[in-house]
Amino acid sequence: MKLEYVLFGFGILFCLAGVGYLAAEYVKYLSEVWKLVSLLLTVGMFAFLSKYFEDIGW
Amino acid sequence: MATRRKKLFLYLTLACFFGLIAIFIVDGYMGIYDTIYITAGEQEEKVEPDSWLRLGVENAYYVSADWEEKIFFRYEVDSRRFLSYTADIDVSVWHSQEKVFDLVSQHMQIGAFDKGQLEWVVDTAELLPSDIPPEQSYEFTVIIKRGQVERNIIVYINPRTYPSGAKVVPTPSR
Questions:
Q1: Domain assignment present for B90
Q2: Considering all CA atoms of chain A, what is the largest pairwise distance in Å, rounded to the nearest integer?
Q3: Which residue numbers of A have CB closer than 8 Å to B's CBs?
Q4: Do the interacting molecules here have an ipTM over 0.90?
Q5: Is residue B43 part of a domain?
Q6: How many domains does chain B divide into?
């Protein structure tokens, strides 16, 4: 069970690192509409992730 | 039922994440990007593709040069597409809304995920009017046309000499 949590932790870190890198490097080239869609998807991603962790008892 | 609900949230999280990645790749990375390198004096300036987004509709970039100096331009087009890219590139020098002369007129063909570049030199000695006093500055615009896209570089030529009455402002002591 502990190993699972470690793997989840790594997964979350990789997700954040990936999104952070893409945001820093390419967000300046995004058009306004896709910037908004990206923002909504980011909010959705963290909301669903929180819900998932809540459901598994974190 | 509870397990399915848990997995649903996990899948939705992943869907949002991959959606973000897809948007950044398709809208942020893919496309045609141009970079201009301008060397005046001993200094090279790099005009990044996103500079034009910040500069807005007027999209003019300012560069200064010295009297009778040569300015070296390098125009790099980066094609981040699965298809090859072709465009006619026309570079000309303008002053007071009038074309002074054409610098480059060339057809450019770039393969998929490849780069193409053009180089040219502007000799400011050829542009300065013969009757211009040495204490006067001068400006001209280098217009780069790539298909429908237009990039304007305004070159400001510093005066050769400053008026003798000009006062030197001392640097304030700290």
A1: yes
A2: 43
A3: 15, 18-19, 22-23, 25-31, 34, 37-38, 41-42, 44-45, 48-49, 51-52, 55-56
A4: no
A5: yes
A6: 1
